[in-house]
């Protein structure tokens, strides 16, 4: 079956080619046989304030293309560039496989697939960034807040 099958929760909102649509009171499925239709569930959207990592940035680029807030061709080049950078970071890892899939999907214009691939990397990226946070020594904290050593003892 070609196209997209969208499973929806009761009253879930989503965008279809930029138009806001809401599901009814019961769970449902919608089959969109035309692959050129842009669909974005609002539950899959990231708020601009949460775009603070490279994976989230690439995800957001795909999101704004799907929502119709940026022209497909215009946003695609920036998205592909961001995905190529991520591909260099995650090379030869399981995360790299997901980035590769996202890159193929982006070049094919399948932006919802890009979201699906990148969403799986949120936790991986968070763990990587947390592991590389500098560990502050007590002396560093004292200097950062300008406390005299006697105040800490």
Q: Estimate the helix proportion, in percent.
A: 40-55%
The helix/strand class is: alpha+beta
**Helix-strand string:** EEEEEHHHHHHH
Low confidence ranges: 141-153
Number of domains: 2
Strand content: 5-15%
DSSP strand count:
5
User: How would you sum up the global shape?
Assistant: globular
- CA gyration radius, whole angstroms: 20 Å
Main beta sheet, described? 3 strands, antiparallel
- Give the strand order, joined by hyphens, for the main sheet: 3-2-5
Number of helices: 7
Distance between the termini: 69 Å
Indicate the mean pLDDT. Answer: 81
Protein described:
By secondary structure, the protein is α+β, with helices and mostly antiparallel strands. The chain folds into 2 domains: 44 residues, no CATH class; 108 residues. Helices cover 50% and strands 14% of the residues. The strands form 2 sheets. A 3-stranded antiparallel beta sheet has the order 3-2-5, covered by helices on one side. The longest helix has 18 residues. The protein is globular and about 50 Å long.
Topology, pairings included?
Elements: E1 4-8, E2 13-16, E3 19-22, E4 28-32, E5 39-41, H1 54-67, H2 72-89, H3 94-107, H4 111-119, H5 122-131, H6 138-144, H7 149-152
Antiparallel strand pairs: 1-4, 2-3, 2-5
Helix pairs in contact: 1-2, 1-4, 2-3, 3-4
């Amino acid at each position: 079956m070609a196209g997209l099958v969208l499973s929806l929760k009761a009253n879930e909102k989503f965008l279809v080619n930029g138009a806001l649509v809401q599901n009814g009171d019961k769970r449902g499925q919608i089959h969109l046989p035309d692959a050129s239709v842009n669909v974005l569930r609002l539950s899959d959207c990231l708020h601009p304030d949460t775009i603070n990592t490279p994976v989230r940035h690439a995800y957001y680029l795909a999101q704004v293309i799907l929502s119709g807030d940026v022209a497909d061709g215009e946003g695609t080049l920036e998205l592909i560039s961001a995905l190529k950078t991520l591909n260099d970071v995650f090379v030869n890892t399981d995360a790299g496989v997901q980035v590769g899939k996202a890159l193929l999907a982006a070049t094919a214009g399948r932006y919802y697939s890009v979201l699906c691939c990148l969403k799986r990397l949120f936790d991986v990226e968070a763990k990587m960034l947390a592991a590389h946070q500098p560990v502050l020594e007590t002396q560093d904290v004292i200097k950062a807040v300008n406390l005299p050593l006697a105040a800490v003892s």
